[in-house]
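Reviewer comment 2.1 asked that we show a complete input and output for one of the modelled complexes. We chose the zinc ion case, as it is the one discussed in the main text.
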Amino acid sequence: MRYCKGCGLPVPYGKFLEWTSDGTIIGKDSAHTRLVYLKVEDIRNMFKGITQRVGVSVDRYVAQAEKEVGKRFAKALVPGFVAHAPRGRIARPEIGVKAASHFIFNYMGGLGMGCAEMLEYRSGQGARILIENSHYIPLVVGDGAGVFEFLERIPVTARWEPVGPDSYVVYVEKTEQPQQQELAQELALEKEANIPGEVHFERCPKCKIPFLVSRSLYLDLDKGSLRNTVTGDREVALPVESFHAVATVMTAHFGAELPYLMEKLEQKHVRESSGVRYYADASGDKGMLGIFSDFTWRGVGNPVWAGNTERGVEVVVDNPFHPGMVAGRVAGQYEAWTDSLVRSSWTEEAPGRLRVLMEPVA
Ligand SMILES: [Zn+2]
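Response of the prediction step:
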């Protein structure tokens, strides 16, 4: 791995990712995958909270939903010579599969998803992969299954077994079950409008990544983990599609209140974490908007307005990565900063424009 001489981040970061002026982070891959940086503990806590609420482990559903995302991820990244190599009865060229998986594992490590090693690969049948230090194992398993489905064009299932502390073996196996056509179609429709913004970053002259990013994150590529240098938290970059896929699949299984539950859990975890005292700068000319100063480098969205109205406190965020999750985040950060509790609701005022209303809890 080569590191940028201007800012110290790995060179591929600048090659593959762009921090835009509208509060989003967009991959330079063919699918323009949108990414968001979140605290690993927030993600784990959210799924733990949902599991407690619905009474059964949701891990299997998360892995199932993420498979479609993994497939797209592979489609956008895997070099053409591997993707188009013969398949079916003819064994796939092992060197090509090794090259593709090495490339994908490296990319995943760079995003903070942990490290992976291919233990066994049987073309048309399945694979065994060792995963260490993952951010959240069901998401990585789903990604792995999706990559395999993409390479082999056969439906697969995936399961995982712990083999040590923070270490799992993932088994990807051929199945007769049909693929998730409906989810694939729904995700294809999920193209939010992008509202232009005026986010300005001071950028590294060599790789163009904002200095705010290189100052906030430290990448340990050997472990595949990202450390927030300001708060000490572990962070991870996730495809935004993951949240839409997970919400869709879990709503189908557990009912329509699921996205609402995700929002409320996010609000609670953000309120109870210490991050806001490091980021918030409500004293400057940004005023109340300063509470959300980490949104743009994280790719959460572009906070464009915040203030008091006759209805309560309102915040407008353009291009939110997921309306419910961002509304929860807005309310949680506001609560943490003001040390108060609020009741929040949100509307999508226009495509890509989220308005969050917060009223004090009496
Ligand atoms: Zn740089």
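The chain has two domains: 11-189, 256-360. We note this here for comparison with the apo prediction described in Section 3.2.
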